[in-house]
Amino acid sequence: MTKPRILLADDHTMFVEALHKVLEPEFDLVGSVGDGRALLEAAPRLKPDVILLDLSMPLLNGIDAAQQLRQSLPSVKVVFLSMHGDPTYVTEAFRAGASGYVLKRASATELIQAIRIALRGHLYMSPLLAKGVLDPLLHHRPSPSSAQATLTLRQREVLQLVAEGRSLKEIASILCVSAKTVEFHKTRISKQLGLHTTADLTKYAVTHGLVSP
């Protein structure tokens, strides 16, 4: 019987190596990537059944990557494997199309169970998560404090890269736009959020899970 195909997306090498040992007996691990943009390139090529995805990744965070994957690969199941247990992060992950959300401190048995449930077309949420997660998710109430409720996808992309300390020229190259376009987006972001320094924008990005502290 063919094993389900798994693609790993996490920028911590030692953690990815540990996942290989846990998952290899039951699944076909088709590859691993270390940032969100590499994931968007690899997923269509490798055609996984399930993507195990970290929330905070360089270049493009997991939530925004999952949103784009939902458009290009709607049949792929996405299971977040994250250290973040805040209800806002979890809710945004499911709104982005996740089939599961597992905390990194969970057991290997729980992770395998989450993957199996996702493959059957159901949703899985770690029992360790805060009880307040499901209510706003099921009732589709907006999350006013979330970056996703305020900014467009392109604005979130620019904000993340600014928070990572990249120059306008670097951001322009990554996003394949002009530096002037990047500057325009940064100015709009600052105006919309009422934040006028790079330090304030970075703090906002960290608070909303777009980049790691």
UniProtKB/TrEMBL annotation:
- Key words, A-Z: DNA-binding, Phosphoprotein, Transcription, Transcription regulation
| Span of domain HTH luxR-type | 144-209
| Statement: the UniProt record of this protein carries the keyword Glycoprotein | no
What's any GO biological process attached to this entry?
regulation of DNA-templated transcription
Residue ranges annotated for the Response regulatory domain, each copy included: 5-119
A GO MF annotation of the entry reads:
DNA binding
PTM 4-aspartylphosphate: list the residues.
Answer: D54
Q: What PROSITE patterns does the entry give?
A: HTH_LUXR_2, RESPONSE_REGULATORY
Q: Which InterPro entries match?
A: CheY-like_superfamily (IPR011006), NreC/VraR/RcsB-like_REC (IPR058245), Sig_transdc_resp-reg_C-effctor (IPR016032), Sig_transdc_resp-reg_receiver (IPR001789), Tscrpt_reg_LuxR_C (IPR000792), WalR-like (IPR039420)
Presence of keyword Transcription? yes
Pfam families attached to this UniProt entry: GerE, Response_reg
What's this protein's name?
A: Response regulator, LuxR family
- What species is this protein from? Nitrospira lenta
